[in-house]
Write a structure and sequence with these properties.
Elements (H helix, E strand, L loop, with lengths): L5 E5 L8 H16 L3 E4 L5 H12 L4 E6 H4 L10 E5 L2 H10 L3 E4 L4 H15 L7 E4 L6 H12 L12 E3 L5 H7 L13
Parallel strand pairs: 1-2, 1-5, 2-3, 3-4, 5-6, 6-7
Helix pairs in contact: 1-2
Length: 194
């Protein structure tokens, strides 16, 4: 990609049980701030979401959070962001996160993170976008995801090329070089994906 200004990061509203996941979020947030790349995320101040937002802001970077009104209290919307958008629904949240981002990075997370990951990969499969999707296999976290996708392919429910819709990297230091090495998106995103 010639120009990388904004990355959407999907990750957990919890920190999980492995402290390495927290450290990966901090490291990536620091890298984004150092390179002047804006963070677009789910808007919460808790979990890995809050960790990466705090790391970007501590480094002087810009952070845009998007949170649905009904989750604002549960995920405790982050008040110290460059921008916080409180929206009417999960669908609006996902669309705005998509619209504001040049690429997507997936750190460890739970069911919501899985939902966002599968949806953004499916949008790419359907030709709605051609932006890079990167999963960070921190401490082997995304190995089961990779195995599941391969299982779907092996059973004839997806083409072999489906595995090319996303890239798995092993460390946070691999993320930005992988995105920058990706070809320029060839698909003009639809204005209303949902």
């Amino acid at each position: 990609m010639a120009k990388l200004t904004s990355i959407c990061v999907y990750c957990g509203a919890n920190e999980g049980g492995n402290p390495e996941h927290r450290m990966a979020a901090v490291r990536f947030g620091e890298m984004m701030a150092a390179q002047g790349i804006r963070l677009v995320f789910g808007g919460g101040r808790v979990g890995l979401m809050g960790v990466i937002a705090d790391a970007v802001m501590a480094g002087g970077g810009e952070v845009v959070g998007i949170i649905p009104e009904h989750l604002h209290d549960i995920e405790v919307g982050h008040k110290g962001l460059t921008e916080l958008h409180v929206v009417d629904s999960m669908h609006t949240r996902k669309q705005l996160m998509f619209d504001l981002s040049d690429a997507f990075v997936v750190l460890p997370g739970g069911l919501g993170t899985l939902d966002e990951t599968f949806e953004i990969i499916t949008w790419r499969q359907l030709g709605l976008h051609d932006k890079p999707v990167i999963l960070v296999n921190n401490d082997g976290y995304w190995q089961p995801f990779k195995a599941l996708v391969q299982h779907v392919i092996d059973n004839g429910f997806a083409r072999a090329s489906s595995a090319d819709l996303f890239t798995i990297v092993e460390t946070t230091s691999d993320i930005i070089p992988t995105i920058k090495a990706a070809p320029e998106p060839q698909i003009v995103p639809k204005s209303a994906v949902l």
